Amino acid sequence: MLHNYSRALYSMLFTRSRLVGALLLVLGGALPAGAQSAAGTLAVGESHSLSIRADGTLWAWGRNDQGQLGDGTTTDRPRPVQVGTASNWRQVSAGKDFSLAIRQDGSLWGWGESSSNQLNTYPDPLRPVRIDSLYNWASVSAGHDFAVGIRQDGSLWAWGMGLGPTNYPEPMRQVGTATSWRSVSAGGRYCLALRQDGTLWAWGDNSYNTLGASGSNRYLPIQVGTASTWASISAGAYHGTATRTDGTVWTWGRNDDGQVGGSGTMQNVPWPLGSGTLWQQVAAGASHTMALRTDGTLWAWGNNLAGQLGDATNLIRRSPVQLPGTWQRVVTSPSGEHTLAVRADGTLRAWGSNLYGQCGTPDSSLAANMLPWPISPSGPVLDMSTGADHTALVRADGTLWTWGRNQYGQLGDAIPFERPVPAQIGTVATWRSVGSGNNSTLALRADGTLWSLENPVVGVGGIGGTVVPVSGSGTWRSITEDGNHRLGIRPDGSLWAWGSNVYGQLGVAAGLHVTVPTRVDTTTTWLSVEAGEYFTVAQRRDGSLWACGRNAGGELGDGTTVQRATFVQIVPPSGLGWRSISAGMFHTLAVRADGTLWGWGGNLYGQLGDNTGLTRLQPTQIGTATNWQSVAAGDYHAVAVRTDGTLWVWGMNDNGQLGDGTRRYQYLPVQVGTGTNWVRASAGDRHTVALRQDGTLWAWGKNDYGQLGYPNYIGRARPVSLGGVTAVRGTRAAARLALYPTLLSPGQALHYALNGPPAAGADLILFTLTGQRVASYPLPGGSTGRVPLDALRPGWYLARLQLPDGSSATARFAVQ
């Protein structure tokens, strides 16, 4: 009933119902640190977008055929990618197919197309280059194919196409002799500028009276009217907008789409839009206008065929319409048909044309561009987990994000609807790891406290949810759950369990249900634990593997189908220990210390990958490969990563959860694509998510609850990008790195394995998850080795293999 009601709401949303626009704004996700309100930190081009984060780094996304994103390629980017490695950017502006930016030292930089000298340089650079030798730039504004800027001495400068009487590309030149300019805005082929005395000036093409007065084109600034109370300006393609110090907003110029407001008649001179006196900012696009009031309300009018007004329709608006929510800044472009805005809570949204991913929507066929679309989180991922129909992850900045089904409150946002886009849960930034059951979620904070995402009154189950502490839980090193029972390992190596015990899956003789964490035994050498469907498998430090609970399908691997209420050891065919484990519905998968892959239990859908479909009561090797790095078991399918960075899948595939482009069940592991840059994966009921070396997060399979992070509920049979989650800055994936063990005791050495002997001069560099460099070890050669870790404090770290040619690879480990 709840699911059908939620689906009906979203059906209304994507049939352009304005009423539901408010709902998606509430449910949407956020851009973490970096969406800020300062002028010049956001920019919109014709088909690309730019943003400077609070840490001074510059990010870009959208169309990139001319290198306007500045990432060194001409590949379109539907999610933000970092522009270089500098962290001292101050202001940015986007033209049609080029970009300009100023650093904190006052230097001016540009990249993208320069055929009209709009970058004051040749040839077209794919990365930021200095376009002037001075360090005295105060602001810059990019037009269609020209640019204007103000230096710190108040002088005004212009370069590019169409600003002079020759209509040829022009070098950088001063505009007039005045040194009292305050701000400037470049339009289609004209400019608006304010002087320090509050007067408004304009020059350039005047085809639609864009200069605020009738007459011919002007090649030097002319004053617009006589008022000296102008506060801010924004030049559209062929219409101008401005605010005055009394809070009024004024518009003029072309008006065939209602971008000036009113009846559609062109306005020859600035006229006030209504009698309101609460306007603080205005932004003019190609043929639409956005404006912000002092109360934080955002208003839009003009052309809306691409959804650029953000009101969930395609209707042209000749008078302002209000968007839901409160906002702090909005920007658009005289060349573009999309809009960026920052909400009052700091989240970054985009809407309008998305043909090149400029709205941050990874699939341009989605209708989400008619509403403010949340730019997905970007930053290093610390941990991720999939439930039956939802997904959760912890970023390296300590924030917690969820999306998908929410019938049982498993998303932790107290909203009784599924949420098909990632959203941050609360404001806490000290999360360390997350684990998802079928319909529940547990998460650990850095202080070791354990928290549950569920309805706080009725426990697992109920409508809506919040993040609540687990009563009497103490502190923890790791946790797991399947929705029916939960287990955790404390810092001292002890194993604890609680929840349903009907099959003995807790490993304690304490009845059918245990309400509080209860210690399993006296052992203090537990390393990891995995909760399957009514059974448990756990690993000790000596590499031994243990299991208890339901065993009808042989999921315990002890050679029987006898239910076990206490842990029994799973004995490998030879003396080698186990490296990692993962539990599914009726089966278990594990990687041994020698890199071989093994499985046991139910196999009806090929989830053991041994090409038989036969139930296995004891560990059975899957293939002959010896380079398996990790494995994740879904309910009836599996996904695994090899040390060469390839991704492999097998088992049930009725919803495309294998990502191989088919719906065929696979009884042997098959490779997903040809990529060699996968680092980690997680499998849900019928969906899968995986992380690449370049930091991008990908998902595929069933999407009926939005568990893939897409609001159209369409499943995918191949991996689709969920957004940038950049790893250690500047890394590339030309090399491969595996670490063992990934959880070390104080003083224990870290062992590494490479995909081939490193070139002379390779280094292994250790970072904290916040990017702080803590150690560096020159590698002696060979493909394996170890480094000491005596000086490292307990916590999570990233190890980066840095090769002399600039390529690198990263892997994560922890010191306890």
UniProtKB/TrEMBL annotation:
<dbReference type="Pfam" id="PF25390">
    <property type="entry name" value="WD40_RLD"/>
</dbReference>
<feature type="domain" description="RCC1-like">
    <location>
        <begin position="483"/>
        <end position="731"/>
    </location>
</feature>
<dbReference type="Pfam" id="PF00415">
    <property type="entry name" value="RCC1"/>
</dbReference>
<feature type="domain" description="RCC1-like">
    <location>
        <begin position="42"/>
        <end position="324"/>
    </location>
</feature>
<dbReference type="Pfam" id="PF13540">
    <property type="entry name" value="RCC1_2"/>
</dbReference>
<dbReference type="InterPro" id="IPR051553">
    <property type="entry name" value="Ran_GTPase-activating"/>
</dbReference>
<protein>
    <recommendedName>
        <fullName>RCC1-like domain-containing protein</fullName>
    </recommendedName>
</protein>
<keyword id="KW-0677">Repeat</keyword>
<keyword id="KW-0344">Guanine-nucleotide releasing factor</keyword>
<feature type="signal peptide">
    <location>
        <begin position="1"/>
        <end position="35"/>
    </location>
</feature>
<dbReference type="InterPro" id="IPR000408">
    <property type="entry name" value="Reg_chr_condens"/>
</dbReference>
<dbReference type="GO" id="GO:0005737">
    <property type="term" value="C:cytoplasm"/>
</dbReference>
<dbReference type="InterPro" id="IPR009091">
    <property type="entry name" value="RCC1/BLIP-II"/>
</dbReference>
<dbReference type="GO" id="GO:0005085">
    <property type="term" value="F:guanyl-nucleotide exchange factor activity"/>
</dbReference>
<dbReference type="InterPro" id="IPR058923">
    <property type="entry name" value="RCC1-like_dom"/>
</dbReference>
<keyword id="KW-0732">Signal</keyword>
